[in-house]
Amino acid sequence: MAKPPPAATRKPSAAPTVALTLALVLASAGLLLLLLRLSPSSPSPTPHPHRRLRLRARAHAREHHQIPFDPVVADLERRLEDREWERLAAAGLHAPGMEAAPVPEDLSDGEDYINDAARFNVTRRVEELFPRIDVDPADGAVTGDELAAWNLANARREVLHRTARELELHDRDHDGRLAFGEYERPSWAWRFDDLNSTNDGVGWWKEEHFSAADMDDDGFLNLTEFNDFLHPADTANPKLIHWLCKEEVRERDKDNDGKLNFQEFFSGLF
């Protein structure tokens, strides 16, 4: 009996091979795109993962600004301010008794420095500053009180630096201290004169204010005393605190009885 012919052999399908090849191609393309995206477009010897740091350029003396956290940055900003201060003083553009409002002409050099990771590494600066902040106690952790003390010290240093410039501006005999006759109050303060003539105005920049700031009663203000004179709300001088309280009462005392009722007290709170 003859054997039936063998069944035709089926050819293997190419679909799995094509699918595998396509998957490999897509995976390779995706990996290549990922590498291209992660690679820097313009290689730099000093990469900066953070946003560009800026030095302060104040347009007005009374404009709010933040005190630099890093003393190095604060020193750069003070140098820029001093340079502009000297330029304005030489040109006679300072208003008597007013803090300068410097707008540095060129911030590029200082900003280039603090944005150059090779010369000013932010991470390293934080590591260097940390033990200087962590002092009470030095336990490897910075508390809110320690951070507040650090920021307050930086702010006081900044204010005292500006006071020194003011003292230099008014100190006509250059003896490092200020007599009352040497100080010329801000030009905008003269508008209080009409009020003062009726005893309803403020006594700021008057001789009583000057004498209250004179802690050692020698008739002159040194740098610390002059700083208290300009910023009496921040003083620890008992005489000046007492004078400041008297001024608060006088400003709010509408019926001129030398004391404050509740309405007078409340109206001056806000």
Could you characterize the architecture of this molecule?
The chain has 270 residues and is mainly alpha-helical. Among the domains are: 71-170, no CATH class; 180-267, no CATH class. It is 48% helix and 0% strand. The chain has helices at 15-38, 71-90, 108-114, 122-133, 144-170, 193-196, 207-213, 223-230, 238-252, 262-267. It is elongated. GO terms for molecular function: calcium ion binding. Residues 207-236, 253-270 form the EF-hand domain. InterPro entries: EF-hand-dom_pair, EF_Hand_1_Ca_BS, EF_hand_dom.
SSE inventory with pairings:
Blueprint: H1 15-38, H2 71-90, H3 108-114, H4 122-133, H5 144-170, H6 193-196, H7 207-213, H8 223-230, H9 238-252, H10 262-267
Protein name: EF-hand domain-containing protein
Organism: Panicum virgatum (Blackwell switchgrass)
Domain EF-hand: 207-236, 253-270
Condensed summary:
With 270 residues, the chain is mainly alpha-helical. The protein has helices at 15-38, 71-90, 108-114, 122-133, 144-170, 193-196, 207-213, 223-230, 238-252, 262-267.
Q: How many beta-strand elements?
A: 0
Task: Give the overall silhouette.
Answer: elongated
Contiguous low-pLDDT stretches (5 residues minimum) are: 40-45, 95-106
Distance between the termini: 119 Å
SSE run: HHHHHHHHHH
- Mean pLDDT across residues: 76
Could you tell me the radius of gyration in angstroms?
35 Å
Total helix count?
Answer: 10
Structural class: mainly alpha
Report the sheet-strand fraction. Answer: under 5%
Q: Helicity range of the residues?
A: 40-55%
Largest sheet geometry: none
